[in-house]
Amino acid sequence: MTRGTLRIIFTGEDLARVRIASRIDELWEMAMSLHVLQRPGGGDDMAAWRRRARADLAGSGLLRPVRETLAPLMPIKAYFPDFLTPYEAQSGLTTGVEALADTPALRVRHEIDQLRRHVTLPAGLDGLARGHRRAVRHVARLAGRYCQVTFAPCRATMERALGRERARLTRLLTDQGVDAMLSALTPSTRWRAPVLEIDYAPGRYEIHLRGRGLTLIPSYFCRFTPVALADPTLPPVLLFPAPRRAPEPGPGDPLPDLLGANRARVLRCVAATTGCTTSELARRTGTSLSSASAHAQVLHRAGLIASTRHANMVIHQVTRLGAGLLGTGTPS
Prior knowledge:
The protein is α/β, with parallel strands linked by helices.
């Protein structure tokens, strides 16, 4: 499938109003995890979660309702209804579920009509398609139960992964400013002030922020390209994949013998992020700035990392070759 581009256009006021979500947005994670549930791949951790989630859903009597109601609403396509991921969910699951349940019928009907342009919905969703209040509330309750059941076993892992990513972005914002943070967001985003370009679904899309700012939401279950709301009039958000932690070396790990201990540590550090600067490499590995830069240059020449200059800094990202050497597969 040919990739398209999403362009988010900032003003000076928007740059001052960029914020990082302070907690897990469980309804966004619901949407992304349903995509994981519906297709193979995503790495060993996702395969293990998929097996556990199916067993837990079956044990709680939710597997069939999820398959017949939630999954059809969130197909692996270019669109799913925005009302399923309300902005209020950033304040917690309970608040998000209540906001979902209170979605106006007119909006529900409009967004379900949009969804029908992409997929054929089962007859069991006719009540929702008409915006019936009872059907909307049923979806909201089911969404809440799904999150409680499927996220419980991995919640600590989710918190750690998203906490690391929030901390990384906060450090970049504090130490080097909003331009540096946007430049190092993910490998599929490119910051060319005043536009953030994102590899996206086929087509060309634009969101003009017009002073509303942008909320950045790192996601545990989003494993491919970033996602934004389809309706440009809603509060602007950008959901993006939080990087997976590179595996720690085990006994007899040959990588230090191959690359040297410090260089192996630098490679693992780069692989644990979606992009980090040379100064961040030095801080994380406990080496001097010049040493971190020298190691990164060698790894770049060997094709294990890609190094791209943005203004007065260099952003390092692991390549497929580097990820393969570490045993992590395709980089996040």
